[in-house]
Amino acid sequence: MDLKNINGQIIGWSTISDDILKYHCSTSQVVEKRHLDFKDQASLLDELSKVIDNKTLFNRIKRALEKNDAEEKKMSNKAKANEKKATVTTKVEAKASAEAKTESKPETVSKVTVVGIKNDDMANLEKSHADTVAEISAEEKKMTEAKMLQETCERVLQKATEAFNNARQELQKAKTAQKNAEKEVATFSKKIKKLNEKLGEIENKIETAKNQMVYLIAPGYSGEIPACGTFISTCEVEGVANLKVEQIPTELKPDFQDMIKAGFDSAQEYAKALKFVTLVEYYLCNDMQYKMLVSDDKIQKLISAHIDG
Asked: Residues 69, 73, 79, 80: is their CA dihedral positive or negative?
């Protein structure tokens, strides 16, 4: 709970407490400074007792106000005494001046020395003192806040510096790792290039080998024909272009039981088959690369009987 001045403005009791305790203001000075409507010390203390719950603090304020009022009264009495002394001095000097008129020429100007200080001057000095103390307190408060801000900024700066140093170290590590990765990529790129070149060579060799592959085509073959290669048979085979027909003397003698066992019912077909078996045997004995293209089971049985067996 706070107080209101004659203008309706709210005045915190802590402000009045500072005026009394910190700036040593008397009752009249507090009333004048804060524009309050209190006639004396008792009415001010009575109102303060209603808004200050802390009795210890209130008693402290009360004692300080009583002391401040006593000091003000003491200064006021001293000022009045000085003023009275100044008045007496003026009267004495005036009397002496009047008596001196009969003995000497009258002076055109009388000089009066006033000793002491006026009440208004003392009040102004005390007000100036209180204002200066208040200004010092305000500046000290600002300085305290500035110091707190400075300490906070220093902590932030320290953390930022540490973070920057850590980031710089991490950046250096990242740069080193990136350079190492570049070297590895370059190394792998060279290896892959060489492997691709090797792969190309192998594929070319495979293609060449395919073109050089010899296919021995059995009589009456009706299966699929490879796209490339050398095609050889002992007789013409329908559907095979670029077929090379070779006649190799056979040492195999026709055998009726052999013909029946293989499943031939024609001596002519059996004779053609024997020539083809001779061709296969020739390539086998000379360790030559070849593939057989056979679609007739009878010829396959004959090959198995004479070569595989």
From this structure: positive
d(CA 304, CA 248): 19
> Which are the contacts of 261, defined by CB distance < 8 A and separation ≥ 6?
301, 305
Give the global pTM: 0.35
Q: Sort 280 into a burial class: Cβ within 10 Å, 0-12 / 13-18 / 19+.
A: buried
Cβ proximity of 248 and 279 under 8 Å = yes
Looking at the chain, the number of H-run helices and the number of E-run strands are: 8, 6
| CB-CB contact of 229 with 210 (8 Å) | yes
CA 142 to chain centre: 34
The domains of the chain are located at 3-117, 214-308
pLDDT tens string, the chain, 309 residues long: the values are 578 888 888 888 899 999 999 999 999 999 998 989 888 999 989 888 888 889 999 999 999 999 999 999 899 888 888 877 776 666 666 666 666 665 555 555 455 555 667 778 888 888 888 888 888 888 888 888 888 888 887 888 888 888 888 888 898 898 988 889 889 899 998 889 989 989 888 887 776 766 668 888 988 888 888 888 888 898 888 888 788 888 877 667 778 888 888 889 888 888 888 888 888 888 888 888 888 899 888 888 888 888 865
Of the candidates 226, 227, 218, which has an alpha carbon nearest to the alpha carbon of residue 299? 218
Q: Is the separation of the CB atoms in 213 and 289 below 8 Å?
A: yes
CA pair distance 7, 90, nearest whole angstrom? 44
Cβ neighbours of 121 (radius 10 Å)? 11
Beta strands in the chain (DSSP E): 3-4, 10-11, 214-217, 230-233, 243-245, 291-293
Sort 157 into a burial class: Cβ within 10 Å, 0-12 / 13-18 / 19+.
Answer: exposed
